[in-house]
User: What shape does this take?
Amino acid sequence: QKEVEQDPGPLSVPEGAIVSLNCTYSNSAFQYFMWYRQYSRKGPELLMYTYSSGNKEDGRFTAQVDKSSKYISLFIRDSQPSDSATYLCAMSSLLMEYGNKLVFGAGTILRVKS
Amino acid sequence: DTEVTQTPKHLVMGMTNKKSLKCEQHMGHRAMYWYKQKAKKPPELMFVYSYEKLSINESVPSRFSPECPNSSLLNLHLHALQPEDSALYLCASSDPTSGTFYEQYFGPGTRLTVT
Assistant: This one.
């Protein structure tokens, strides 16, 4: 079993739709949860991060963490064609002395059609 | 400035060549990372440098040799690579002393092709 599971998609939605992206994980030591966006042939870009359970909102993006279910989500409201990219969830346990090791999900390919 | 730069953008090398990838950041981050990313796969951690010392080596073959000459620079020396090493090589950095230590900033990557 992989430490982090993420449906690779592709997920295709019309412009303006609400998008829901999800990951599940098995390692209870994960405390920090991140979502990265990666455009084709570019490096990943940090979108959102959350610590422990709860919600965090930033503009059109909302990140949710449910540690009891080991489940995280990213919601995108009013999706735009420019949101078309691969979305990677990533998780980390506390390893400050060494720098932190991120464990990534497989990434979900999102296509927003105009 | 949250920029991590990587050179070259593209690299084609033969299996007997020696080449190096370079990564630079000026954010004062003291943790730097090399990742390998194959097509349609997530990044896989290769090495972590913390305060210019190698702190994590994820059992990477010795044909990949990292180097951190100073706090802003990270190199990856390549020698006798195999075609299966063709991938996007990503560099990232983070600040291990701040409350946002888990935020890693990625460079655009070097697309490596081994022929």
